[in-house]
Structures are given as structure tokens and as C-alpha cells.
UniProtKB/TrEMBL annotation, chain A:
Alphabetic keyword roster: Coiled coil
Domain of life: Archaea
Ranges in coiled-coil conformation: 116-190
Name of the protein in its database record: Uncharacterized protein
A Pfam family per the record: DUF7856
Listed InterPro entries: DUF7856
Keyword Coiled coil part of the UniProt annotation: yes
Organism: Halobellus ruber
Keyword Coiled coil: yes
UniProtKB/TrEMBL annotation, chain B:
Basic and acidic residues bias: start-end ranges: 83-112
Organism: Halobellus ruber
InterPro entries (alphabetical): DUF7855_C, DUF7855_N
Domain of life: Archaea
Sequence ranges assigned to domain DUF7855 in this UniProt record: 1-64, 66-112
Residue ranges, annotated region (Disordered): 82-112
Protein name as catalogued: Uncharacterized protein
């Protein structure tokens, strides 16, 4: 189940090796946090930091890497990680894999948003331009009629020239408006086609998220009985220390120790010396947790 | 009203947050879509969503549907007659055969 051995080098060059690295008597200024960072970082590390040679931590490890009385624990998440690490099969696996495959194979047509935006702008501008010219043509028609009533031939000619000029501009603007509207409609249709694929992608993403939730719950449920057994044994061993009582009540530390006991862990966990003493010493702790230890 | 439809998880999340913070502007919410009031502020929210999520947001301007103004009489009357038919299992095409009601494929091909 476990790989077993750890090699740890402190910045002063001191080296430790074995399934149990006991740093209780070591004076060096090396914090549990620094050791955890080294476990996560692997090697090489900076010369002023400790280095740990061990298998890389898995998802379970993050929940129980620091076993101290103050440990925070999300019990369900930790148990789900244990189930996953044990390779528990769930009814969601097949559907999850299928949904992931479908998502991978789904191609979503790209839409050039800048182009679409430019088309919207052009259609809007063309629309307001024709609107403006329509009003201008109407005004000039009125002016021509009024000049005719006045009987001023020069003024009539002038107004007619202005009217025919505006009419020509209006016809150009209308042509532009039609072109802009058609262009926009074409791009909108293309965007709509891409939305079908986007909608499909969204449904697949939701399905994957749901299946993952279901799988996590199934993983946690699968290891719950073993976890409860282990928690009972740990509870007896702790015998009421760290606020645990003899009964079945869980505390974060008791739960975390039980999680560590039932999980396949190959990267070392850093255990508080008081916890090690409560469990009956380094050997007994190692037996219970079945994981490489660094005691600090 | 302004109909906003989202097509990605992040766009949906943004819409959800916008709806939560601006309830006065939201007429209806339907999961990944919402109807916003046609105020400048509704437009402001729609523009923001479009700016942030581009192709993952669709914005349509909607208006109330008046079947007496927007629909040809024959179509409206066919719908009323079909809704009141005697046998609930008759498909429309069979119902419309040998009557003056427009047939479905004809209606499908005609823009409103």
C-alpha cells in the first residue's frame, strides 16, 4: 500500500532517511510548514530550505498532510479523495467519461465578435442616415411647392436642384442601408449557428459537473464504513486526549487520523509530536497510519 | 423587454449576479436567460454582459405579441379552430386537410 521510505535533507546538510523521520530532537529552525512546502515542491529546492525525496503527494495528502490538534478538515472531501485514490468505481464513471469525450470532440464555430460589432454599428449608422435624408427630402419637396406658389422661377430652380441632390443622396444611403442590414443578418445567422454548439457545450459542462459531484459522493460513501472503523480504533488509542471522548464523536484530528489510516498515502505526512505520543510513539503511529512520517 | 440568453457557465454566472444585484431591472429570470426592463439601465446591463462575454451572450429586443395586429387572419383562425377541435389526437395536417385552413409547411415557409 505505501512506498514507505523518505529521505529528508535539512539546510545545514543533516540527512534523515526511513519510513519515520523523527525531528523531535533536532535543533534546526525548520518549521512543519517548511517541510510541507518541500514535500509539495519535490526537488530541487533552494539551499536554505529543507529538501524531501519522496513520491509526490496525491489529492488525499492535501487533507491530512499536517496531523496536529489544530487541523481543519473537510471530512466529506477527504473521504471522496480516499475513494478516488483507492480506485473505487462508481455508476457515474461511464457517463462522466462519455460526457468528457463529447466535450473534447465538440467543435464550436468561432464568431468574429469585432466583425459582428462593426456590422451592428454600420447598420445602425446607415439607418439613421436614411432617416435624416428622408426628412430632408420631405422638407425640400415642401420648399419646391412653396416656391412654385410664390412664382419665383429662380428660387424654384434652386429648390429643385437641392431636392434632386438630396433625393440622389437618399437613394445611395438606402442602398447602403440594405447592404448593411443584409450583412448584419448574415452574421447574426452565423452567430446563431454557433450558439447551438455553445448551448451543447454548456449542457455537457453541466453534466460533467453533476457527474463529478455524484462521483465524489459515491467515493466518500464507499469508504465511510472503513473510515468509521478506523475512527473507532483511533478514538480508543487517543483515550480522550485532544478533546476526543471515548464514544463515537468525531473531532477534526480524530477524523483526519482515521482518514490517513484508511488512505493509500505514499508522500510523507507531518505529525505533531504530541499526537505521536498520544498514539503510543513513532512506531505505533506508523503502524496505525501506514504512511511515511515526519515528526515535527 | 430585453431578452438576454447566455451560452457559457461564466456568462450564466455573470447574469445570475447581475439579476441578484439589480432586481428592479429584472422582469423574469429563467436559469441561463432573463428578461430585463427596457430602460436605459436594462440596456446598460445587456451591454456590459455583451462586452464581457461577447459571443456567449445573445440579446434580443422583444415586444408584446398581438395576434390581431401581427398575424394573418387565416393563421390566427386556424390556431383557434385547432385548439377547439373535438378529437385531441388529430394532428394539425389531418385537421386542416380539405378545409380553408393554411397547411403547416406553407406557414413554416412564410415569414411573419
Amino acid at each position: 500500500m505505501t512506498g514507505g521510505t523518505v529521505r529528508l535533507r535539512l539546510p545545514d546538510g543533516a540527512e534523515f532517511e526511513g519510513p519515520i523521520v523523527d525531528l523531535r530532537g533536532v535543533d534546526a529552525d525548520v518549521s512543519p510548514a517548511a517541510i510541507l512546502a518541500a514535500i509539495r515542491a519535490g526537488c530541487p529546492t533552494r539551499p536554505d530550505r529543507p529538501t524531501v525525496y519522496a513520491p509526490p503527494p496525491t489529492r488525499v495528502h492535501t487533507h491530512v498532510c499536517r496531523l496536529s490538534p489544530e487541523i481543519p478538515l473537510d471530512r466529506r472531501a477527504a473521504l471522496a479523495a480516499v475513494g478516488a485514490a483507492r480506485g473505487v468505481e462508481t455508476t457515474s464513471d461511464a457517463d462522466l467519461a462519455a460526457a468528457k469525450r463529447s466535450l473534447r470532440d465538440l467543435s464550436v464555430p468561432t464568431v468574429d465578435d469585432a466583425e459582428l460589432r462593426a456590422a451592428r454599428r454600420r447598420a445602425a449608422e446607415a439607418g439613421s442616415e436614411t432617416e435624416r435624408l428622408r426628412e430632408r427630402v420631405a422638407t425640400l419637396r415642401g420648399r419646391v411647392a412653396a416656391r412654385r406658389v410664390d412664382g419665383d422661377d429662380d428660387a424654384v430652380a434652386e429648390a429643385e436642384t437641392a431636392l434632386s441632390e438630396a433625393t440622389r443622396e437618399l437613394s445611395e444611403a438606402s442602398t447602403e442601408e440594405v447592404a448593411a442590414t443584409q450583412r448584419l443578418a448574415t452574421l447574426e445567422r452565423r452567430a446563431d449557428r454557433s450558439r447551438d454548439a455553445r448551448e451543447k457545450r454548456l449542457r455537457l459542462e453541466d453534466r460533467i459537473a453533476n457527474r463529478r459531484r455524484a462521483r465524489r459522493a459515491a467515493h466518500a460513501d464507499a469508504v465511510e464504513p472503513d473510515f468509521r472503523d478506523a475512527r473507532g480504533r483511533i478514538g480508543s488509542a487517543l483515550g480522550g486526549r485532544f478533546g476526543t471522548c471515548g464514544d463515537d464523536a468525531g473531532t477534526p484530528l480524530r477524523d483526519a487520523l482515521a482518514v490517513a489510516a484508511v488512505a493509500p498515502i505514499r508522500a510523507p505526512v507531518v505529525v505533531d509530536p504530541d499526537v505521536v505520543s498520544a498514539l503510543g510513539g513513532p512506531e505505533a503511529t506508523f503502524e496505525r497510519l501506514d504512511a511515511p512520517l515526519v515528526i515535527r | 423587454m430585453l431578452l438576454v440568453v447566455t451560452y457559457s457557465r461564466r456568462a450564466r454566472e455573470t447574469l445570475r449576479n447581475a439579476c441578484r444585484s439589480h432586481e428592479g431591472t429584472v422582469v423574469r429570470r429563467f436559469g441561463r436567460a432573463a428578461l430585463l426592463r427596457e430602460t436605459e439601465y436594462g440596456a446598460f446591463l445587456a451591454c456590459r454582459l455583451r462586452e464581457r462575454h461577447a459571443g456567449d451572450v445573445q440579446v434580443q429586443r422583444t415586444e408584446p405579441f398581438n395576434e390581431f395586429a401581427d398575424v394573418p387572419d387565416a393563421v390566427r383562425e386556424a390556431a383557434v379552430a385547432y385548439a377547439r377541435r373535438d378529437s385531441p389526437h388529430t394532428p394539425y395536417d389531418r385537421f386542416a386537410a380539405d378545409t380553408d385552413h393554411p397547411d403547416a409547411s406553407e406557414m413554416r415557409g412564410s415569414e411573419l
